[in-house]
Amino acid sequence: FLDVLFEEPYKNLIQINEKKLKNRHKFSVIISTYNRCQQMIECINRIRANSYFPVEIIIACDPCNDGTVEYLRNHSIENNIIAIVNDNHIGSVKSYNKGMQAATGNVIAMMADDFYVMPGWDLAAAIMLDADKSIGAAVPLTVYESGQVESPGENCPYKSTIYEWLGKVPFVNTGDVKYNFITNFPQYHIPRECDYAFTPIIRRECFDKLGLLDEQYEHYFVDPDLGYRIQQLGYKNVYCPTIVVVHHELRKKEDLSFVRERFKKDLPKFVKKWGIYRGF
Q1: Cα dihedral angle (260, 262, 267, 273), rounded to 10 degrees?
Q2: Which residues contact 175 (CB under 8 A, 6 or more apart)?
Q3: C-alpha 84 chain-centroid distance
Q4: What does pTM read for this prediction?
């Protein structure tokens, strides 16, 4: 598995993991997209090709001008897609919330349109969730299309003036492995508890208690906020290295000044909500 983009080991792992399977599952994958029709189609195709369980795909988008809306109107039925096309521009957070309200699976994954799953991603998540009822969310290993690591689960170095439990998960500085290949980092070859995921895979029991995403955020800090809320409910976020998702990171092509402005708007909201006093 050290060559994280080589699919054969993951296909072999499916044969091993299915022997451990305790329950049948239905996955709901919620994808927010905007003017990325071809990337969205590839994301859908990868989910269909590389999933073990039946998957309900929910696409939520603002009005698009690149063929996204037409594709969803013409192909949703044949591809078993639930399409939610907003009447106006409401942004990704509110779009995800609409998708969350439509999800019927007993495991729910949240994914961007430029994430592509590797074979058996859902089976590996199900094995982890079935093995420990205290796990609220299985956390994938996300890698770039080069195979270099983006995230092996994220740990926050923060404490809180409000919540005594916040910061109890041991901090792991993942900076050593990011933008490197996982080959020489055995500490990331095993599961561990973390604070949040870029693409959380959530058990239904936890999902139902969570409620919707916090819409005060325009874009950033939704992921750590969700991870904290999972912990607040008494569940854990646990990294699983055999759930692999490839991130094409199309956002890098955006105007960086615009990205920085959005980040600066959302940061104080996150700090205030959780009473963070360390890390900034």
Answers
A1: -170
A2: none
A3: 19
A4: 0.93
